[in-house]
Amino acid sequence: MSGFFDIPSDLQHTYAGLIGLHLREALVPVLVGLVVSLPVAQLCVRFRWLYPPVLGVTTVLYAIPSLAFFVVLIDYTGQSETTVMIPLAVYSMVVLVPAIVEGVRSVPPETLAAATAMGFGPVRRYVQVQLPIAVPAIIAGLRVATVSSISLVSVGMLIGNQGALGNLLHDAQIYNRPELAVNSVVTTAVLAILADAALVAVRLLLTPWMPKESAAR
Amino acid sequence: MNLLQFVHAFFGDGSHWHGYDGIPTRVLEHVRYSLEALALAAAIGLPVGLVTGHYGRGGNALALLATAGRALPTFGLLVLVVTWLGFGLGPVMIPLVVLAVPPILVTTYEAVRSVDPAPVDAARGMGMPEPRILFQVELPVALTLILGGLRSAAVQIVSTATIAAYVGLGGLGRYIIDGLYQRNYEKVVGGATLVAALALATLAVFWAVARLTVSPGVRRGT
């Protein structure tokens, strides 16, 4: 009854169940953040004057502590998964918008001119030229967003056991079983490192044109 | 609307402004934890970042270290460290420093490494020894970026120091954690507002520091 992987029944999940829950609570917000960030970033690239104010707003949003964000949302969405996921989506956007803008802007003007000369319309040029070239910058942003999202889900434990693997931290204390806390920290860290490695692999697949030595990083 | 009423009620209550649980005390505690953690993280991250950036080596090792640091869940680490080492300020510093070192380290490394090589070569050609090149040429040029790294570390520390209250310390997290258990949302929202305000104040301080310390010539270039 006190093994490393024996999850107390009050969590109502198996070890694998907690991992699935944790990944869902962490990754869905990153995906939502990416889907919202792409058009926002494109607007910032298209209308230059928009970028500084957008950057200002995202900096302010990032300054709101996750716990405070969760607690304020309880009033609207209750003590639920959604309450944990909304702030994480916002944090992901804060990281992703600048990453995408910098990535799209870093496309050399000659490349764009060549695409236009070949008869690419603005949409096709964006999807087939700018976005692929921006992939390394976008993935770099996604890595930071994903890793911090996975780490932050644990804080959800404080708003009524909505922290997936983080809930083990609470049980570690009430049942005096420190190994559960070790389990929580180690599992979360391993998940974060695996997600990071997966994104690096995606980058390598999507950018076969990049020089190999810099691909190692 | 609801939210504003909570904020108004919290700050309007005179009893929230006095004593050991008063706003001034809690703000000072929070600032103290944050400053100590930032100082520790800077003491580790800055020298390592400056030296590795100057010689342009160890980037891969640093990136690996930073990923590992980011991967460790801060909150979990806090609970774990307190379980092992007991309650107190020292144990709380560990997760905060682990949180803050990666951004400082990586930005400092990148900032120094990406300094325009022409002035560095000129300085070397004039016979400047390496430490002087680092501190009188590379550091001033890279300062904007380095301060940016310190700034994001500081903001993360300020917002994360909230969780110190979970293991019985003071700071602004006290209001949030106590309010949650007492079902006193006025207190929770008040605490959250204070932390966010403190984080914004941190941004303002760094903006002012950058204004004062970055040389006008460098600023014009960026």
Describe the structure concisely.
The complex is a heterodimer of chains A (217) and B (222). Chain A is an all-alpha fold and 217 residues long. Chain A is 76% helix and 0% strand.
**Main interface: chain pair and counts:** A-B, 43 and 43 residues
Got a strand count of chain B? 0
The low-confidence parts of chain B are none
Helix share, percent of chain B: over 70%
Q: What's the overall geometry of chain B?
A: elongated
Radius of gyration based on Cα positions of chain B = 21 Å
The structure class of chain A reads mainly alpha
Number of helices of chain A: 9
The succession of helices and strands of chain A, N to C, reads HHHHHHHHH
Mean pLDDT score of chain A = 86
- For the record, the count of structural domains of chain A works out to 1
Q: Report the C-alpha radius of gyration of chain A, rounded.
A: 20 Å
How much of the residues of chain B is beta strand, in percent? under 5%
CATH level 4 superfamily of chain A: MetI-like
Strand count, sense and barrel status of the largest sheet of chain B are: none
Shape of chain A: elongated
**The CATH top-level class label of chain A:** Mainly Alpha
